[in-house]
Amino acid sequence: MRGSPDITDKIWSGANKTPVCEDIAMNLNVPAFSHFVRDGVKLAYFDEGDPNGTPVLLIHGFASTAVANWVNPGWLKVLGEAGYRVIAIDNRGHGTSDKPYDSDVYHPWIMAEDAVALLDHLGIPEAHVMGYSMGARVSTFMAIAHPDRVRSLVLGGLGIGMVEGVGDWDPIADALLAPSLDDVTHQRGRMFRAFAEQTKSDRQALAACIQGSRDLATKEDVAKIEASTLIAVGTKDDIAGSAQELADLMQHAEVVDIPNRDHMLAVGDKVFKSAVLDFYKRLESR
């Protein structure tokens, strides 16, 4: 990672300032997006890869987008070339989806229903579901509420924080609503404010999202998940919490450590990608 005294500088790379790993090739071919409406909220998604392949539904993290989380770091290319049908949603409040300012519409179980509605819209009975960070939380709530729709789970960037929380996020909301980045002194707040600016996000919608999407999954609910699960967390991630502690609560979970990657850089790492492809291959052979 390039050295810099400011965390808001060192997490970015490339002309469009997308967080990436230095050991992967960027794929900036942005796919066409379509839209559907659920409960009055217009939601954007892309549907790429092999139309006859096993579907993989991708759910991005907070302040990110389907493009920033899954296209730019190469996931669409990798999964598509492996023969999968690759579907990704722009969560409400993000990307080209509608951006409500009411924090009550951002609970993870509500966004999980958005994801299920997308599968319904596309006529897909079940899919491999992969989420990163907030997207991992949404994916888990989806697996809890709709186990028949989730063929497997990949949870990236979130470990035991799923049930224990990941710290105080009020400074993130404050940072997003501050007049400028120069007014933000909280380190994690600066990181997410910079990320939001670089993804050209609606910061008021993101502040509502971070206030509404913190609900925790219970240990009891997590223990009921029967889907095979892969949990992947960077060894330098100071947000996610222990992947192994979360796996220990689950029936069929395994862990991959992403070496020397923090929360921002782990998402596109080649170790993560290889582990997911191997995980899917083993599931298909059963």
Fold topology:
Blueprint (H helix, E strand, L loop, with lengths): L6 H4 L23 E5 L2 E9 L5 E5 L6 H6 L3 H7 L3 E6 L17 H15 L4 E6 L1 H12 L4 E7 L4 H4 L5 H8 L9 H12 L4 H10 L6 H6 L3 E7 L8 H7 L3 E6 L11 H15 L2
Parallel strand pairs: 3-4, 3-5, 5-6, 6-7, 7-8
Antiparallel strand pairs: 1-2, 2-4
Helix fraction by DSSP (H/I, runs of at least 4): 25-40%
Low-confidence stretches: 1-25
Query: What is the second-level CATH architecture?
Result: 3-Layer(aba) Sandwich
CATH first level? Alpha Beta
Order of helices and strands: HEEEHHEHEHEHHHHHEHEH
Profile the largest sheet: 8 strands, mixed
Major β-sheet strand ordering: 1-2-4-3-5-6-7-8
The whole-angstrom Rg is 17 Å
How far is it from the N-terminal to the C-terminal residue, by CA?
A: 39 Å
CATH homologous superfamily caption? Alpha/Beta hydrolase fold, catalytic domain
Q: What's the overall average pLDDT, rounded?
A: 91
Domain count, please report it: 1
Oligomer: single chain
Percentage of residues in DSSP E strands:
15-25%
Structure description:
This protein is α/β, with parallel strands linked by helices. The protein has one domain: Alpha/Beta hydrolase fold, catalytic domain (Rossmann fold), CATH 3.40.50. About 35% of the residues lie in helices and about 20% in strands. It is built from twelve helices and eight strands. It has an eight-stranded mixed β-sheet with strand order 1-2-4-3-5-6-7-8, with helices on both faces. Helix 7 packs across helix 8 and helix 7 packs antiparallel against helix 9. It starts with 6 loop residues before the first helix and ends with a helix. The N terminus is likely disordered.
